[in-house]
Please model this.
Amino acid sequence: MSVLAALRRVGFNRIMKSLEGRKAASQKLLLPATIGFSPADDEFFRANRGLFESCGFEIDDFGKGYYRISAAPAWLEFSETEKFVRDIVESSAEGGIGRRNKRLGDEIFAAAAAARIGMGGFLCAEESAVSLLSELLECPMHMTSPDGRKTLYEISHARLLSLFGENS
Model:
């Protein structure tokens, strides 16, 4: 199993569920993050703010072009909150998505969000690996991550023997 690809597929699935109206698990920030945008990026952010909030962000207005984020999704590291929001807004706007229609689609948002999911917080122990595999197998299209990387690999018995030697 490719752990990073599996984490991203599972994360994508969780994000899509939260965008479909299911409440996303979020975590309160000890110190709220304050973020400001240029006028163009602010327009894009306001048009897509609901996507962030559906995923577990709690966002309050904090002046013209400024926002305070007091909670973030449980799958996002605390220290990554501001960077995550800024990266989504700036990369989407740079890619022309925001300029064309001002609104991200759910799948585009979820894929962009899942691409930023890392290994942080994942302890590769038997229990967490089994839990990840179980959740992965419940996902549609569980064989690949949202960006197309394989999540699972099939290794034949003969290949295992060639890798580790035959100890009968």
Notes: The chain has a mean pLDDT of 82. Residues 3-19 form the longest helix (17 residues). The radius of gyration is 19 Å. The beta strands are 26-36, 58-61, 66-73.
